[in-house]
Amino acid sequence: MSNRWLLKWSIESFVKVGTSYTVSLGTDGNWGCSCPAWIFQRRKLPDNSCKHIHALKECVKIAGGVYSLESVTIVDKGKVIEFSVNDRASGVGYMVYYQTDTGEAIKFPVRKLDAA
């Protein structure tokens, strides 16, 4: 039997200090999250997705695919989820801020990465 989850990302919560959630992309293309909203109420959520999944999907669009997010730091600050992404292909790092109430994602470069 193959592994159900293809890729996983950890999201540190600033709302609940000391808590982290895992957002996963399944081999079948479905998404999952370890947060209580997704576990207990996903059928009531839009697209069966919590704010963490919605935010990560937006970041994937901006990054140009899930494999561009292999080096990403994600922090849930309640109404804003921050992504710090290192894009090794272009050598540029950037931040993405996802507004959980509006669904808007804002991207801007933060630094040039050192060449390896």
Percent range of helical residues = 10-25%
Q: Roughly what is the average pLDDT, rounded to an integer?
A: 75
How many domains would you count in the coordinates? 1
Structural class: alpha+beta
Order of helices and strands: EEEHHEEEE
How many strands? 7
Largest sheet: 7 strands, mixed
| Spatial gap, N to C terminus | 37 Å
Order of strands across the main sheet: 3-2-1-4-5-6-7
In DSSP terms, counting alpha (H) and pi (I) runs of 4 or more, how many helices? 2
Q: How much of the sequence is in beta strands? A: 35-45%
Globally, the shape reads: globular
List the uncertain runs: 111-116
Q: Radius of gyration, Cα only, in angstroms?
A: 14 Å
Task: Give a structural overview.
- With 116 residues, this protein is of the alpha+beta class.
- It contains two helices and seven strands.
- It has one domain (5-112).
- The protein has helices at 36-41, 51-63, and strands at residues 5-13, 20-26, 31-33, 72-76, 80-87, 92-99, 105-112.
- Strands 3-2-1-4-5-6-7 form a seven-stranded mixed sheet.
- It is globular.
- The termini are far apart.
- 25% of the residues are buried.
